[in-house]
Design a protein that fits this description.
The structure is a homodimer. The first copy, chain A, is 22% helix and 24% strand. Chain A folds into 2 domains: 46 residues, no CATH class; 179 residues, 3-Layer(bba) Sandwich (Glucose Oxidase, domain 1). By secondary structure, chain A is α/β, with parallel strands linked by helices. A 9-stranded mixed β-sheet of chain A has the order 1-13-11-5-7-9-10-4-12. A two-stranded antiparallel sheet of chain A has the order 2-3. Chain A contains 8 helices and 13 strands. The N terminus of chain A is likely disordered. In chain A, strand 9, helix 8 and strand 10 form a beta-alpha-beta unit.
Chain lengths: 266, 266
Amino acid sequence: MGAGAAALAGSAVAPMFARAQSATPVATPVPAVGPMFSAFHDLTHVASPSFPMFPGAAQMQIDLLVTIEDDGFYKNTLTLDEHTGTHMDAPAHFIPDGTTADLLPIENFFAPLCVVDISARATDDPDATVTVDDLAEWEAANGPIPDGAFLAMNSGWADRVNDAESFINLDADGVQHYPGFSGEAAAFLVDERVVVGIGSDTLSLDPGNSTDFIAHVTALGAGLYGIEGLANLSSPPAAGAMVIIGGPKHENASGGPSRVYAVEPQ
Amino acid sequence: MGAGAAALAGSAVAPMFARAQSATPVATPVPAVGPMFSAFHDLTHVASPSFPMFPGAAQMQIDLLVTIEDDGFYKNTLTLDEHTGTHMDAPAHFIPDGTTADLLPIENFFAPLCVVDISARATDDPDATVTVDDLAEWEAANGPIPDGAFLAMNSGWADRVNDAESFINLDADGVQHYPGFSGEAAAFLVDERVVVGIGSDTLSLDPGNSTDFIAHVTALGAGLYGIEGLANLSSPPAAGAMVIIGGPKHENASGGPSRVYAVEPQ
């Protein structure tokens, strides 16, 4: 449905709304469906004009275009940096001739989810990073990182998402301070394990104070995708869930807003 | 990563690109992952500035914002009508106080997929609709529409997507001609079966020549979501696959671009 609908439909639409509104309550009609899964976790923040952005990037705009009252239906125009909200970084974001998001194979958007929790350390040190030791500790507890996994850092940062100042956490010199992947951990995942992507609950795969963006370059340079701004990573288990990523699919995408779920098999 | 990265990173970034580019080929590192599934189908078109839009709606814009060559990384600004490409219609699109897309329960985005193929009829008659008889025929062949299903119309229209004129198919009076759901079929699905959503491979849930948008009003009025502009519906089986919908999650969403997959269980 588009902007022309009201013009084409004229007043014929209005009575139908009244019928629908009075006769059928607007509610989800059925309970959860998905006999293959026992639990569903939404790892996606709500994007909005107030969502914290990497310094210098424009805030998303949501401009009301038409309303049911005036036009018969409701919609908005969206204006956004591709790297807004919970979003994907495709290899093309950092790598010349890297794959764009629309061309990534969808099989890689279904992956065993490994959640590495460094939130205790990050509480005291906003510059904390995922280290190779953290990965070893995860494997000691959960077994080897499965081939084809997606590995996510839970730094607890998602709890700050409604306070942009705290989420971006600039110091007096304008340097950001939030956790990310160390270069060594990124290299370990690329060279010693077989993963399809890595994710963070902050604005970047790299820690906020990075100047070389080594985690980005290492992961995207190896053809992995990244997901930034993940939500709700304390909800799924550290191991055993499957991440499913509804990635962006527009032409030449360096990345884009993504819907990210974790599901647990029955 | 945002617009400030180049400024913060300065020249430190450039050498890393060279290393990544030469040392690690940009390629998908692993074969398909997903032992739960035996087949993956992408039901999503590539959105672009040339994607066919409902008459009167603005084309998507993709504006280059920064480049690796000049800025150290690549990204775009997107400007789009929420109802662009393969996208969701939330109840709020047509129904006062209807649920917005960001608030729909994610459990309903995992659903048994039922594909009703009317492409043979639509080839001869662009005004063809999914009828109650079509639904009965589908059930005779495949068994009852499962509770919690997502039912999609395959009219063959996706084959026209690269030819906007043919996809929109206006007549001399400016009336669109493409298939959709009949009001009776929509009412049957809402009243006699338990479905979470319905989808089409055209610009609308209703046929192009609709003036009352009865399929929209009936489905969205009952709290279902719609998906329009589905791709590749001949690829999954008519029954037995699961649709997974990566729906939009921005504030007040009347709908938005969605990544839609069909997967077949092992």
